[in-house]
Write a structure and sequence with these properties.
With 213 residues, the protein is mostly beta strands. The chain has two domains: 62 residues, no CATH class; 138 residues, no CATH class. The chain is built from one helix and eleven strands. A hairpin with a 5-residue loop joins strand 6 and strand 7. The longest helix is centred in the first third of the chain and has 21 residues. The protein is globular.
């Protein structure tokens, strides 16, 4: 009986390996910090109606791990995923031509000071989004520069300090293929290959395998 059980266990492991190969799952995790800034208080634009004169700066940064307490500004590693927006324009790591991200934390690991700047060229010119707080001064900007480098529009907040929230993500779960519609799991004679990869059935057991009680 022991030999039969060892044989069954090996076959079960083989089936699990086939399932994992057919249905890979993500193990990525991280800690995401989201920022909501103060409402813009001032604005200027050379052509009225071309720039968001109301709104606010928001940002999101995801680090591989939770920021440590008393994290120093200059030690900030660039997050793998980040974005910053003024409510109309959004810049993230996929399109930014230039970015700068620094944060520091307090003794509980909460973001205390920060600097997030990103710039990208589009059909309007060069868009820049900024939020900066050093404990004394808050500066939040939505900027548009022309191709000649001249400032065309600006909206800013220099009075209200925004707030950060933290959310720790967990690895994505393993999708159970047996719950998928039109999926049939059959026990049959083992084929020439150990896995039949048509995503409808997996056949790994040989014939005459006794049922597991």
């Amino acid at each position: 009986m022991g030999a039969i059980w060892n044989r069954r266990r090996l076959l079960i492991l083989a089936e699990a390996a086939c399932v994992l190969a057919l249905y890979p799952f993500s193990t990525s995790a991280g800690t995401t910090y989201t920022y909501t800034g103060g409402v813009f208080t001032q604005s200027y634009e050379d052509s009225p109606g071309r720039w968001p004169t109301s709104g606010r700066i928001t940002a999101k940064v995801t680090f591989d791990a939770e920021l440590a307490p008393n994290h120093r500004w200059e030690e900030t590693a660039t997050p793998g995923v980040w974005s910053i927006s003024d409510g109309v324009h959004t810049i993230d790591q996929t399109i930014s031509a230039l970015s700068r991200i620094h944060v520091s934390t307090d003794e509980d690991g909460n973001i205390l000071h920060w600097q997030i700047e990103a710039f990208v060229r589009n059909t309007q010119g060069i868009v820049g989004l900024v939020t900066f707080y050093d404990g004394k001064t808050i500066t939040e900007l939505s900027l548009l520069f022309g191709s000649d480098g001249a400032l065309k529009a600006i909206s800013y907040n220099d009075s209200a300090v925004g707030t950060w929230k933290k959310a720790t993500s967990t690895p994505a779960g393993f999708p159970n293929p047996f719950n998928r519609p039109a999926y049939s799991h059959r026990i049959s004679a083992i084929p020439s290959s150990s896995c039949q990869t048509d995503r409808r059935r997996i056949i790994v057991f040989p014939s005459r395998l006794p049922p597991i009680n």
